[in-house]
Amino acid sequence: MEYSVTVTSSIEYPKNMSFVIFLAKCPLRCPYCSNSEILEKGTEISLEEIKEKIDDSALFMDAVVVSGGEPLVQADDVIEIFKYVREIGLKTKLDTSGVYPEKLRKVLDLGLVDYVAMDVKAPFDKYKEVINSDIGEKVKESMKIVREYEDVILECRTTYCPAILSEEDLFRIADEVDCDLYTLQQFRNRCVLDDNLAESEEPNAHLMEDIGKRIKEKHPNQDINVKTAEFGQKSI
Length: 236
What we know:
Blueprint: E1 2-13, E2 16-23, E3 43-44, H1 47-57, E4 63-67, H2 75-87, E5 91-96, H3 101-109, E6 115-119, H4 127-131, H5 136-147, E7 153-160, H6 167-176, E8 181-186, H7 205-218, E9 223-228, E10 232-235
Parallel strand pairs: 2-4, 4-5, 5-6, 6-7, 7-8, 8-9
Antiparallel strand pairs: 1-2, 1-3, 9-10
């Protein structure tokens, strides 16, 4: 398999310490992508080497997160990783763009996933306009598939880049998603795929919190998080 890096995190799996594996490759080219160096390829690593890395941290971890890139490009490897994580008794989380609904169902059917975080990058009918990939219906299908599994937590999350998304878009997305947790993430211009966004304004953290509160007012039963560099991850 091809990967980029592994890290430990206290926020990637809420209320759990997690070991995060970033797998390489992604079919999308989102202009604000912060992992553009791994879209085409990564570093070759064997499953046994991944297991060793997990083992080295397992005593201090509650969960293993497989992120990317788009992990389901390498779906068979994701399955093998999660099988091992199940064997050693840790929780599992999958980060995905929702671009591969059938691959997602395959992993879920095996009972290998506790938590799915799905990037919802735009209102479903605006994907082509926002990220130049017309996959809105696939993402909608992936969201519906996850909701079929009552024991799997679903987080939908949107990166708010004001240059390509409006506040109105965020409210539309909140209306369209069906999830346990909706997270607004702050766009950062430090490392982006599209050079035109390198000088784009980052959304103000206070404004994002205000947007989160207004979404909460409209959807009082929806759990909402706002994630910014200034304040970290805050529950609204």
